[in-house]
Amino acid sequence: MRNQMKNKTEKTNPLIWFIFAIIIPIIVAGTLAIIIFSIAGFDTLGFMKSIGNKTPVISSIISSDEDKTNKKEELNTEGIIDKENENEMIQQLQEENEKLQARVKELEKENLKIEKTQESLENKEDKKEPENTEVQQFVGSFKDMEPNQAAQIIKNMNENTAISILKEMPNKVRGGILEAMDAKTAASLTQKLLHEN
């Protein structure tokens, strides 16, 4: 087992030695050379690009000045086209915005109509509540009466008032009162009660 471990360490040692003894010093020396020549005023990057452009594999990676100017021209023409498209898009957005604002105004008008209708309905309900409380009081009075007496009183009332009172009565009491009335009056009131509901 120890022999296998020694073999593995011996195999990796030459590779590590190669990296630390040769590769890293070359990178450090190259970097120092570029920095020193750049400080001295030489165009080291331009020199490296010109050599790289002459080398077949590296020339495909490094872009030349002509490629840069061609790209700039393409970008400029695209920029002009983009500006035209941008202006069209801005104009379309403004038109859509105007349509939306008009629609918002219409909706606000509709909302005001709905609010007014709701207020008028609430006012009508408020007005009906006192009537309903009065009707409830009369219903309570008629519940306590004999059906014959209640029938005579309701028979002499306005039909709308009679229907309002009968509508609020329990079925048993209403049935007794309608039974005590003559058939024609009872039938007429029953029909109107059905149409009310």
Automatic annotation (TrEMBL):
Keywords tagged on the record: Coiled coil, Membrane, Transmembrane, Transmembrane helix
Q: Which residues form a coiled coil?
A: 83-129
Asked if the keyword Membrane belongs to this entry, the reply reads yes
Family matches, as InterPro entries: Mg_transptr_MgtE_intracell_dom (IPR006668), MgtE_N_sf (IPR038076)
Domain named Magnesium transporter MgtE intracellular is located at 142-193
This chain belongs to which protein, by name? Magnesium transporter MgtE intracellular domain-containing protein
* Taxonomic source organism: Cerasibacillus terrae
Protein origin, superkingdom: Bacteria
Transmembrane residue ranges: 15-40
